[in-house]
Design goal:
Layout: E1 2-6, H1 9-16, E2 20-27, E3 30-37, E4 40-46, H2 51-65, E5 69-78, E6 87-95, E7 117-118, H3 121-133, E8 139-145, E9 165-167, H4 170-179, E10 184-193, H5 199-221
Parallel strand pairs: 1-4, 1-5, 5-10, 6-8, 8-9
Antiparallel strand pairs: 2-3, 3-4, 5-9, 6-7, 6-10
Length: 225
């Protein structure tokens, strides 16, 4: 079984609509949809926006369904070397608002956790092969997770050139999967570019389009992974 997690309805509704043998389970504010897409067993969750919502939802998913892999899909803000509408596979993830450097940790590192969360290499290879087979261009990169919508990196203790995307759930999902020994990968579509003059208008223009495309990526490759 493959778990798919996204923050917003628009990022997963297209996937939910094509599940066959669909079953729903409600726990608190979370609804889990499990069944099959293209013959592959899946469980899909809209976790909500932000780190806590993502971590709680993924914890429940792992406990209830024990997926072989978890994929976080959805939109993100681009930073370095990317353009709007790019597909980004996150190879590594850290937090942008965690600072325990006074105790010798790297910026973005939660104490007693890795300095960077690494995605599962087996899953990464499966996804890159699937994207190549479908002739879908993509880029590999590093994601920074904040509990804020980032419009500027000025004043932040982060080198812009070290970041590919900013988003609001990825590192929390990666940390949860690390703790619970579940392979993880992030696939994101760029909706806007951080620090650009047109960032907000681009986000408003591309949010829904890119969110639907994030579902389309999963539709295209799920039978291949």
């Amino acid at each position: 079984m493959i778990g798919v997690v996204a923050a917003m309805d628009t990022e997963i509704n297209d996937l939910i609509s094509i599940i066959v043998e669909k079953e729903e389970k409600q726990i608190g504010k979370y609804t889990f949809y499990n069944g099959k897409i293209d013959g592959v067993k899946v469980v899909i969750l809209k976790c909500g926006i932000g780190k806590v919502s993502a971590a709680v939802g993924v914890s429940l998913m792992i406990e209830l369904y024990k997926p072989k892999y978890i994929i976080n899909t959805g939109i993100a803000g681009g930073v370095s070397g990317v353009s709007s509408k790019d597909i980004i596979l996150t190879k590594t993830l850290t937090y942008g608002d965690v600072d325990c450097t006074i105790f010798g940790y790297d910026f973005g590192q939660v104490p007693q956790m890795p300095c960077k969360y690494q995605v599962d290499e087996v899953l990464l290879n499966k996804v890159t092969n699937a994207l190549n087979e479908k002739k879908l261009a993509y880029k590999l990169g590093h994601a920074i997770t904040f509990d804020s919508f980032i419009t500027s990196l000025k004043g932040k203790a982060i080198k812009k050139e070290d970041i590919t995307i900013c988003e609001m759930e990825g590192a929390a999902i990666a940390q949860t999967c690390h703790i619970l020994n579940t392979p993880f990968l992030g696939i994101r579509y760029i909706s806007d570019i951080v620090d650009s003059e047109s960032q907000i208008s681009d986000y408003q223009t591309f949010e829904t389009e890119m969110a639907h495309l994030s579902s389309a990526i999963i539709k295209n490759i799920i039978a291949l992974i």
